[in-house]
Each structure stands twice: as C-alpha cells, then as structure tokens.
From TrEMBL, chain A:
Residues 194-215 have a biased composition (Acidic residues). This is SERTA domain-containing protein. Residues 54-101 form the SERTA domain. The lineage of its organism: Eukaryota, Metazoa, Chordata, Craniata, Vertebrata. InterPro entries: E2F-SERTA_domain_protein, SERTA_dom. One of its GO terms (cellular component) is nucleus. Residues 222-232 have a biased composition (Basic and acidic residues). It comes from Oncorhynchus tshawytscha (Chinook salmon). Residues 177-232 are annotated as: Disordered. It comes from the Eukaryota.
From TrEMBL, chain B:
It comes from the Eukaryota. PP2A consists of a common heterodimeric core enzyme, composed of a 36 kDa catalytic subunit (subunit C) and a 65 kDa constant regulatory subunit (PR65 or subunit A), that associates with a variety of regulatory subunits. This is Serine/threonine-protein phosphatase 2A 55 kDa regulatory subunit B. Pfam families: WD40. Belongs to the phosphatase 2A regulatory subunit B family. It comes from Oncorhynchus tshawytscha (Chinook salmon). The keyword Repeat applies.
Length: 324, 466
C-alpha cells in the first residue's frame, strides 16, 4: 500500500460527492425503507463518502489505530507508550479531518442516518460478550461493544470474527476545538449504519468513536459474515455515549462504589474490553488501568451487577488460592 | 500465559571452539566470530527470548535476561599462554531465576517476569552484583563463588541428615574442604512497589550508592541499601490522564557527574536534569530536540521520532539516541540539533504504514557505544545490525544468524537493495524478515567484543584485528 500524506483540503460539495458510476455502497446495502425518506439518507450518506484516496487512506489509518487501541486490553497491562503514540496519531487524524471539514460532514451524515433509522434488533446475533454485558447493564450505563471498525486488508477482519471486538477508542482525546464534532460512531464494513442504533448526539465533548463509512471494500459476503458476528446495540447512543462524558461519569446506581472510585478517571469505567471472553473481570482503559492504585477493594469498574458478581467470583477464587 | 516452569539451567551450551583460521580482513570493521551460538535448541520457546544483554564494567562477565525471567551470566575464559587462540571465550557462569510471573490482584492483571534491563555494579570485592528488573520490581543480585565448604559437622552427617545426638561419641571441628566451583546467586535486595507503570530503564549512579528506575511517567531514585523508600525525582504524569501525550522512554545517569541524568520521551526529545537544582527535577537544564523536517512529515512522524534508547558516551561528552529510523549523537553542549545522524534503515521510510499495521513501528531498538566512543552499533530487522564509525564515517551491516556464520568465520557485510537491480547477495526490502529483529546488543567496555541477541540466540563476535 502506498500512502501519500500530502495534505489536501477536501472541500467537496455535497452534490459532487458521487461522480458517475460510483457505486453507492451505503444505499446499496440498506434494504429497509427508512422513515423520513430515502433522499435525506442518500444525500447525507453521499456526503459522507470521501472520494479522494488520501481520505480513504487516512480513514483506514484511523480505523487501524482505533482497533489497535482496543486490542490493548490484554491480560497484561498494555504498553502505555504504544497507546499514547497511537492515541496521538488518532488525534492528529481527527484534527486534520476537522480542519478539512470532513469530520463534520461525516458526523452530520451519521446523525441523519441514525435519526431516520430504527434498528431491527432481531436481525443480529448477540455474541457471548454482549450477553454478558446485557445482563450487567440493565438500565445501567455500561456501553455495549460496538462493531469493529476495520480497514481493508487489515488483520482486523480476523479480529472481528474471533473476538467481536468493539470499536471503542478507549482513549479520551482532549477536545480539539469546541466545535469539534462529537461522538464517533463505529462503522461497519460499509454496512447499514442504522442498525448500530447510536445517535451521534448532542454534545460536543465526546470524541470517542469513529465512523467508518469507507471501509466498504470487502465483498458483501464478507460483510454479511461480519455483520452476523458483530454486536448489536439496542440502546440509543445517548445512553451509551453518555458514559463517555469525559469529566463526569454517569451516575451509578451504587453510590457506595461510586464514592470509592470517585478519584479514578471515570471515562474509562465503561470501556468494554474486547477480550472479555478471556477474562472474568472487565478491564479498564489503557491509561486508567494503570492509574487506579486503589488500595481498597476490587479494581474500579463500572458498577454493573455482572461486574460485581465477577469480582465476587474472583475474590472467591482468590480466597481459595490464597487459602485464607 | 502459563506459569513458567523452571527449566533445566544446563540448557545453555557453548558453541564448539574452532581453530583460528581466516585471513584478517583489511576493513577495520569486519568482525570474526569467536564462539558463536550458545544455545543448541532448534525450537524457540518464547520464554527463552533474550530481552536484555549487558557486559559488566570489566568485560569479564556478560549477563543476559530473558522473557522467562531468567538471568544467564557468562564469564570470559582466562587467556592462557598455551592456547592463545582461545582468547576469551564466554562460557556459562551462572543461571538463576530472577523474577517470577506475578498477578496483581487489584487490577486483575499479570505482571510479566520478563527482564527488561540488567545493569552491573562495578566490582568491589570478590562477588559480583547486578540489578535486574521486570516491569515492576528491581532486584539486586549477588553472584558469588564458592569453592569450599565446611565438612565434618557434628550434628548432621555428610548428606545433611540430622544425626541423633545420642549416637555422637566424639566431637570434631568442621574443616573447609575444597569442592567443585559453585556459583550461587542470591537476591540481596528487592525494590518493589514504587512503580505504577512499567519500568523501562535502570541506571546506576557514578556514586555507586544510588540508582534510578524509570517507568513511563516517573523516575525514582533509590539507595542501593534501602528498599522501602525511593524518591521520585521526575514525574510527568498530568493531573488528568486524558491530557497524556508523552511518556518517558528511557533514562540514564551521566557516567561521571553523579548529579546529572537524562531522560528521553516518546516525542523525540531528551531532557537533561541536575538533581542539585531541586528535589523534583521536572524542569530540565537542557532540552535536546531536533526540529522536524517538514518535508518528511506524515502521520507517523511522531511515532518514528519516539526515542527508544539513550546512552551517554563513556567520555560523558556525548549522548546517543535511537529512534525508529536513525541514531543520533548529541553534544551535551548543543541542544538544538545532533552533531551526527546515522540512518539505520531509511529504506523503511516508505513502509511505515505496513510497519504500523504489524506493530513493528513500535519496536524499541537499543544502541551502544564501543569502549573508545568511536563506533556505535544498533540493531535492525532480518537479524541485521549496523555499526557506524564516527571518525571514518564508514558504516557496515552485519547479520547474526546461524546459517551465515560458522565459528571463526569472518562476518560478511550485508547490503539491503533499495531499488533497481538487486545485486547478488543483496537483500531486497520486501524480503526482509521483520520477525527477526536485533533489539538488544552490548559492546565490551574495552575490547572489540560484541554480544548480539537475536530472539533466543546470543551471538558473540570478536574482532581479531589488532
């Protein structure tokens, strides 16, 4: 792959986003009628399409970076240097996209698309990961894992199928500008974004997820496979992204736990761990993970009941091992 | 990962000492192998991957640490007049398990036993001391020889079994008997619980009383005698972790000035600190950073500028930094730019995206000075390593591999073909094996003997040109 990183301003008017003959993958893959009319969606989706190869490459790099940040959640503490470098790269890309205006276009398109669509929940199969989360997250602010963002030719595809990884950044990046578009949305491989069910939302503080609107290169068959293995989120983005508020964690139903962990960086409470199949206790984000030296009680986590039961189980196991 | 099982310490075996042979090459930077492989295993277990290599200050000992938490110390054979060609082969001297895998129950995370760094203390008596560290804990090991042991105890017999006192009819005084040489390693100090993040460096001070241990965000100063206390002298952790954009990647004490230390960052800068100025050295005395070349700017610029290793020259005048593509030599008196920049593998510049994808771009290569500070060495991919002569400006690429090296053979210079026609024996960029990386190497403090770690193999090369 040759990547050229010359900066080019990308002020492509909406009307010109689709030169003749270009397959409009978004609209192709969408099959349900959408409330609000096709037009809205098509034009907004059209606006999302980046036609310059530079933008595609940049997007691909962004997606790759997000996956890397996710896969940091291992059994061993993630390498902080690597995480910081990747996060800085993501921030750089995001800054540039913001300056290009690409960012706003993308998020606007997504919010339009999502506002219009309702997810058909029955279409998708929840992974074991999701099951674990859903039990936990009844009415609580635990984010669901999102479909993985991946780029063509990237090992991400295997990752997807194996782990149903969620496309969260996990890093909070400081807001570039007050007008910076808000939440990222995880994209899928050019698939119908509507079934993700997230709102891009309101607030301009969150920059957690990245919309992958461009990685449509894979064949539809591959997409189908991935679609099935991906996780569906039936909750609105607002509920989900609410948890990504940087400074203020969503109020927890357990005030005691909340108080215990009040000094811990809250933005990582709700991070899903990709590999939850491998571990019994959900992990925190790369930075926060290392930060929580809390000497009292189990590691600070979202105060979901499932987490707690996992912790209790862990404590129980530890008691057995330690023989106390 | 499974709990490591203790391997048989005699897994190490020396390569066969071959006869002295070959014509000495005219090139001053061609190296010959003296003794080559020190492992005979054909398979590579991950635990055996060497993670650090270090000569002691006299060069008599060479220590390696591996991913399994073991330390293997080699000792140089004494030269004998009868066999001058067997000059100084390194043989296994001691093997011990330095660190064990741990589990942090609070965070539900494993703490790897991999030895990140080993640093020797200068020898002050018959015993040898080294510091070894994993991600969280530093240990001071004493390696000492025993060639005598007391025999003739009254209360226990030769096998150690307790004798029944009623059977003892006479007393004897235990005497020291000569035994086979035994080398034992004992942990004399354990310095723990001082690092929230992963330790990447340790450095012994020239005062020989203190040392620093460095993690991603902090540098701690220890007294070698005191394990329950350390002083934090550098702390770059932001109040809000979300503002974190830079981490510490390496730190080292100045070789002569006991108050001076330098630390490098993931942003490509080095800060020199004077501990006399204030207790917390968050403000630097000197700041070394080369301005970025705007023509080569890319999304990967920052990542490749991240410094993976710093080393003061033996003279203390210069500082060497290694980033992903280059090695730079800085004059401590000039902060604005390095005095020399050496391209290690610039042909990778066009492949940065692939290297980012497969994570190779995050590989941390180390760099070393030779004893006289005239040559610097660093590793690359495909088991290549590079040497740069600072005086003649010549450089050479050599390969550390079993296939290409027979004992006593002269190492052949290698070349990477960067485009156009590939000459015979050249290697194309696309055929480079990125899983074979030389991250760790060491240079004897006085002589031209180098130790190069290639995965689980240790290669020792000597230069016979004198």
């Amino acid at each position: 792959m040759r990547y050229s990183y010359q900066r080019r301003t990308c002020a492509i008017p909406r009307a010109k986003m689709f030169p003749k003959g270009t397959k409009r993958k978004f609209s192709d893959s969408r099959e349900e009628p959408v409330a609000g009319g096709e037009d809205v969606n098509q034009s907004s989706l059209a606006a999302v399409r980046m036609l310059s190869s530079y933008s595609l490459q940049r997007q691909s790099l962004l997606d790759m970076s997000l996956i890397k940040l996710q896969l940091c959640h291992m059994l061993v503490e993630p390498n902080l240097c690597r995480s910081v470098l990747i996060a800085n790269t993501v921030r750089q890309i995001q800054e540039e996209m913001t300056q290009d205006g690409t960012w706003q276009i993308m998020t606007q398109a997504l919010s339009a698309a999502n506002a219009a669509a309702q997810c058909s929940a029955d279409r998708l199969v929840a992974t074991e990961v999701l099951c674990r989360q859903t039990e936990a997250a009844q009415g609580e602010q635990v984010p669901k894992p999102f479909p993985v963002v991946g780029s063509e030719g990237c090992p991400a595809k295997e990752v997807l199928e194996e782990e149903a990884a969620a496309a969260e950044v996990g890093m909070t990046m400081s807001t570039v500008s007050p007008q910076a578009p808000t939440s990222y949305l995880p994209g899928t491989f050019g698939m119908d974004p509507c079934w993700e069910e997230e709102e891009t939302g309101e607030d301009d503080d969150d920059e957690e997820e990245e919309e992958d609107s461009e990685e449509c290169g894979s064949g539809s068959e591959g997409e189908e496979r991935e679609r099935d293995s991906l996780v569906e989120d039936t909750r609105t983005a607002e509920q989900v992204f609410g948890t990504f508020e940087i400074k203020n964690p969503a109020p927890s139903p357990d005030p005691a736990l909340e108080e215990l962990f009040s000094d811990v960086d809250a933005s990582y409470y709700d991070l899903d761990t990709v590999l939850t199949g491998m571990q019994s206790v959900p992990k925190m984000g790369p930075y926060d993970l290392l930060e929580s030296l809390s000497s009292h009680g189990p590691s600070p986590l979202s105060s979901s009941t499932s987490c707690r039961s996992d912790l209790n189980e862990l404590d129980h196991i530890m008691e057995i091992i330690v023989g106390s | 990962p499974p709990i490591l099982s203790r391997l048989n310490p005699s897994r190490w075996s020396c390569g066969p000492p071959a006869a002295e042979g070959n014509v000495q090459d005219e090139e001053s930077d061609t190296r010959k192998i003296n003794n080559s492989f020190l492992r005979d295993h054909n398979y590579a277990t991950e635990a055996d991957i060497i993670s650090t290599v270090e000569f002691n200050p006299s060069g008599e000992l060479l220590a390696t640490g591996d991913k399994g938490g073991r330390v293997v110390v080699f000792q140089r054979e004494q030269e004998t007049k009868s066999e001058p060609q067997r000059r100084g082969e390194y043989n296994v001297y001691s093997t011990f398990q330095s660190h064990d895998p741990e589990f942090d129950y609070l965070k539900s995370l494993e703490i790897e036993e991999k030895i990140n760094k080993i640093r020797w203390l200068p020898q002050q008596n018959a015993a040898y001391f080294l510091l070894s560290t994993n991600d969280k804990t530093v240990k001071l090991w004493k390696i000492s020889e025993r060639d005598r042991r007391p025999e003739g105890y009254n209360l226990k017999d030769e096998d150690g079994r307790i004798r029944d006192p009623s059977t003892i009819t006479s007393l004897r005084v235990p005497v020291l008997q000569n035994t086979d040489l035994m080398v034992e390693a004992t942990a004399r100090r354990v310095f723990s619980n001082a690092h929230t993040y992963h330790i990447n460096s340790i450095s012994v001070n020239s005062d020989l009383q203190t040392y620093i241990s460095t993690d991603d965000l902090r540098v701690n100063l220890w007294n070698l005698e005191i394990t329950d206390q350390s002083f934090n002298i550098v702390d770059i952790k932001p109040c809000n972790m979300e503002d974190l954009t830079e981490v510490i990647t390496a730190a080292e004490f100045h070789p002569q000035q006991c108050n001076t230390l330098a630390y490098s960052s993931s942003r490509g800068s080095v800060r020199l600190c004077d501990m006399r100025k204030q207790a917390l050295c968050d403000t630097h005395c000197k700041f070394f950073e080369e301005p970025e070349d705007p023509s080569t700017r890319s999304f990967f610029s920052e990542i490749i500028s991240s410094i993976s290793d710093i080393k003061f020259s033996h003279s203390g005048r210069f500082l060497m930094t290694r980033d992903y593509l280059t090695v730079k030599v800085w004059d401590l008196n000039m902060e604005t730019r390095p005095v020399q920049t050496y391209q290690v593998h610039d042909y990778l510049r066009g492949k940065l995206c692939s290297l980012y994808e497969n994570d190779c771009i995050f590989d941390k290569f180390e760099c070393v000075w030779n004893g006289s500070d005239s040559v610097i060495m660093t590793g690359s991919y495909n088991n290549f390593f590079r040497m740069f002569d600072r005086n003649t400006k010549k450089d050479v690429t050599l390969e550390a591999s079993r296939e290409n090296s027979k004992p006593r053979a002269i190492l052949k210079p290698r070349k990477v073909c960067v485009g156009g026609k590939r000459r015979k024996d050249e290697v194309t960029v696309d055929s480079l094996d990125f899983s074979k990386k030389i991250l760790h190497s060491a240079w004897h403090p006085q002589e031209n003997i180098i130790a190069v770690a290639a995965s689980n193999n240790l290669y020792i090369f000597q230069d016979k040109v004198t």
